[in-house]
């Protein structure tokens, strides 16, 4: 009888230890631009294998994510596709400039359905019925797209033909489904689909630089682990993933 009770005691103690271990495991929350989705899932797998730290992602338009964070959303690390929204959080004191860095760059391209034979330059857009871009106020790619169209003096011609999207992935889906004739997305997003093709690249001086800043929130629940993930995002292994998917290193 005593032996049975002792065995039960060991089982109970072991069960408590396992539960405590699960409770103590770290799960970072990272809000990141939608265009980073494929790269970050790959990098997170490598990071978790090396450190045991898990990461939960919240992807979306950088402007929408910024608003969520400003309103108190529980986030450890923010990665934006635009310096504007990111710097606003620094000015609000939500992110420390000392705990932030610029990670990578990207390019903006115009895409069309793969079977399209009519659109090969931005000038060809004068004949289209619908073009999709991200909403400029909340989607950095949309802001860059508007700058390009303004630079080419096409914005006033297209304003009524534009179909706005919540993020670049939605723009991509609109072009894939041929709900629009063309769309403007990042180069990296265009590479993810075999249903679209790149019709034209933008020039760097047509829009502000496309840079992805990242920073740890001042009230991050897991600040040390967030710092570890931010460091890993700047490692050679992470950069190799980014570059393989079409992003550009900044150094």
TrEMBL record:
Gene3D superfamilies documented for this protein: Periplasmic binding protein-like II
InterPro entries, per the entry: ModA, ModA/WtpA, YvgL-like_PBP2
Keyword Metal-binding: yes
Gene Ontology BP terms: molybdate ion transport
Lineage: superkingdom: Bacteria
Signal peptide (from-to): none
Classification via PANTHER family: MOLYBDATE-BINDING PERIPLASMIC PROTEIN, SULFATE-BINDING PROTEIN
Protein name stated in the entry: Molybdate ABC transporter substrate-binding protein
Organism whose genome encodes this protein: Jeotgalibacillus salarius
Name of the gene this protein is made from: modA
